[in-house]
Structures are given as structure tokens and as C-alpha cells.
Amino acid sequence: MADRPFTRADLETLKQWDTPTICNGLEILVPERRAIGFTTSQMVAVDRKFPPIVGIARTGLIRSKEKPRGPIPPREDWYEYVAMTGELPTIAVIQDIDDQPGYGAFWGEVQTTVHAGLGVLGCVTNGSYRDLDMLAPGFQIIGGCVVPSHAHVHMTQMRCDVNILGMVAGHDDVIHADFHGAVVVPDDCVKRLPAAIDLVSRRERVILDMATAPGFNSARMRAALKQSGEIH
Questions:
Q1: Residues 182, 187, 191: CA angle, nearest 5 degrees
Q2: Domain presence at residue 29
Q3: 182 and 211: one domain?
Q4: What's the CATH code of the domain at 132?
Q5: How many domains does the chain have?
Q6: Residue 51: partners with Cβ closer than 8 Å, 6 or more residues away
Q7: Side-chain half-sphere exposure of 3, counting CA atoms within 13 A
Q8: Which tens digit of pLDDT belongs to each residue from 23-67?
Q9: Is 129 inside a domain boundary?
């Protein structure tokens, strides 16, 4: 794994905030990415109560409607690729490229148990999952849908760029995800995000305090906006 300008502790720090808050901070740090780098359709989380997952992307493409038409990556190669081998945790980021994404589920009792055992925190996918009552404890999936069968699900490519409902991600990207969706965090933003989030929070607090105070009106809102600076 390449040298990084952050540590595992820095990734752990980002778990204290939900994904929308991470997006808020990124709007300050990389305003040119304000409209890119995150999922743009509603997704289905295994459990809304699970904390955010933050890790390094392990990417792949899958299909499920038909049997493989040619050679496919050996499953054991995927397991070796996705496993946490250094100090940084991993997240599986898998794009279903069928014309009906999620037709068959890659994720279920077996795959979540295996991946959790390899140190994978969870998965972000436009595809599907199943076995809701038998998934590995604590393994988060942010997916496109829930279906009953795995059909002919198979991997067609790994260690590649993927597009998960608008979020373009690549091998080794930092991913932050929770029940809202997911976002790519540029490497050089990981350490700087806490300060940026603090700035956004202080700006928002001016608005929130004013809006909940007695006698709030549009004139006071105008004053609060002037005091807080540019926000949303």
C-alpha cells in the first residue's frame, strides 16, 4: 500500500461525523468537487444505527443476470486483494454493471462473514444483498436494493474504477459511508477535515441559535446570515 499523508487514527477520527457532515467539510476544502465524488441516489443500509465506515477502497465489477461469458477473476484473488493487510482498514466498493443492477446478490451470510473475517469494514454497492437476519454482526452494507437470490452473480473485474450511483471511485481511494450514502475523501483532505467541519459547524450554529430563539423573524435571519458568512 502506498505511503499516505494520514494514519488509521485519522480515519477513525472521521467516524465521529456522518457522511453529510463530511461532505460539508469537503465543500470548504475542495469547492471544485462540490457536485462530484458522492452517491446521488437513495441507498439501503443494513442498519441505520451502525456508525459510519471509513476505509480504503477495494474495487470490483460484478454481473448476475447471466452466466459468465469468459474467464473471470478467481474468487480467492479477490479475497487476497480486499483483505486488510496493513494498518488501514478496507471497504469493498463494487459496481453491478448489469442493465438491472442488483438482479442477483453478491452479499449475504457467507460473503459478509468471510469479508468481516478478512478485516473488511463493509461494502458500498449499487447492487443488492440478502440474508438480512444472518449477515455478519456489525458488517455494514450501503446497497442499491434487497433481493432473495444470488442468481449467476460473478465478478468480472477487480482493482478498477467504479461508479456507484454517481460516486466515481478507484482503488485505494478513501471512502466515508453511512446510511445517507458514500463520498470519496481526497487523501490530502483527511487530516484537514476536522478543522473544516468545525468551521462549518460554527457557521451553522449562528443560524440555528437565531432560528430557535424567541422573536425570530426574517430581519434576524438576515443578520444571522451576515454574521455566519456563506453557508449552504
A1: 95
A2: yes
A3: no
A4: 3.50.30.40
A5: 2
A6: 15, 178
A7: 1
A8: 999 999 999 999 999 999 999 999 999 999 999 999 999 999 999
A9: yes
Task: Identify the CA nearest to 203 among candidates 174, 172, 227.
Answer: 227
Find the domain containing 145 and state its range: 8-191
Alpha carbon dihedral 132, 136, 139, 145, in 10-degree steps, equals -20
pLDDT in tens, 106-147: 999 999 999 999 999 999 999 999 999 999 999 999 999 999
Whether the pTM exceeds 0.90: the reply is yes
What would you measure as the largest C-alpha separation in the chain, in angstroms? 69
The answer to whether residues 131 and 108 touch, using CB atoms and an 8 Å cutoff, is yes
> What's the average model confidence in pLDDT over 9-16?
98
Q: How far apart are CA 112 and CA 118, in angstroms?
A: 10
| Residue that the C-alpha cell 426574517 belongs to | 218
Report the C-alpha gap between 77 and 4 in whole angstroms. 24
| CA 119/CA 138 separation, integer angstroms | 12
